[in-house]
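Form 12-C: Joint structure prediction
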Amino acid sequence: MMEKMIFGRYLPMESFVHRMDPRAKLVVITLFIGVIFLANNLLTYGILVLFTFASIFASKIPIKFLLNGLSFLFWIILFTFFLHIFFTREGDVIFTFGWIKIYEHGLQQAIFISLRFFLLVLITSLLTLTTSPIDITDGMESLLNPLKKLRFPVHELALMMSIALRFIPTLMDETDKILKAQMARGVNFSEGSLKKRAQSVVPLLIPLFISAFKRAEELAIAMEARGYRGGEGRTKYRLLKWKGMDTLAALLVILLGGLLYVFRS
Amino acid sequence: MKKLNIKAFVSIGMLSAVAFVLMLLDFPLPMFPSFLKIDFSDIPALIAAIIMGPMAGVLVELFKNLLDLLTTGSVTGIPVGHIANFVTGVIFILPTYYIYKKIKSQKGLTIALIAGTLITAIMMSVLNYFVFLPMYAVFMNYEVPSEWVVSFILPFNILKGIMMSIVFLILFVKMQNWISKQQSSFNRL
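Section 2 - Result
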């Protein structure tokens, strides 16, 4: 049951995007999400497509891999595409077939909006494909650091997140073992009425909770024994380094925003 | 958060990981659209709330969604689904926790879970109508007909709440001693 779920989608490779600082990637994506809504004509959408595919090219992620798992999305895009084609009734009629009338504006809307959505998804999946979850966590912690002044527990939240990330594979193995042990005793997890399903999950949950708390206690004792005392003055094992290329990437997105602003109609 | 409580931090992290794993074992219900799926990842959050206080429960809900977002990414670019899941979870566990705190017994828990289910179902119908479905429309351009709130989202949340309640009640009866032992070993957040 669990084998088919590869943990995360991160693809460790060697590329420009992989080497970027996770903070830079987070900043770039946030800016990109804001910028993408500026596009409203052929030229601006062209620039966006160019930017997106240049980023994908720079990440060396095979495009086939990127599109994999987006099949669910494909249907939504298709659905909204036709919704816009048939129900936007503005501009000139460019195509008539029986009762179906396609309007110029409708076709344009359909293409642009589907494209915007598609590009948004491509760029955000690029983040999870090129950055390991622990790096994203570190990046977020570092970006949220100024909030510490407002007594927002940034370090503690990042610590909990890192612990969760560290133990997901362990707990997955354990869940798998428990599932198999229960299935060997004749429990059916994937069929049956809702009530049966609710009952069958209890023997999975109890051992999971007990072992999670046991592990937590052991880890807490180990941390205390090693003198863990919170984030203050603590040095880091994984250091984030903001390099020239990170500034370059951030500038590129700002440039993209500028271009879209100038050329939008 | 008061004193630095390492054990609570570590336990919250661990329960978030459990919730994340349970989230992977989700399944759709027959007759409902595929984006409405049932999983049991609210149970660890509820356990966290009862053992370590309401804040812990909210954190487990938060981390569970954040983990899912970081590892699998969001199919919509902007994580509307994750935000909705987080809000649903919080709306379910907080009323349940506060009612249970007033009446600390099995009967109290049953009342709390029923109330939690009803509050979640009503609140989520309202929120879906005014916030989440319009958000889907804006970000994904996926127009969900608003009649779905009554025909799918309301019954879905009631069904989900009932399933959570059944599982949690069975769990609570079986683990009562263990839970009260854990409760006494934490400074409450």
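Section 3 - Comments
Strands of chain A lie at 93-97, 100-103. Chain A is about 70% helix and 5% strand.
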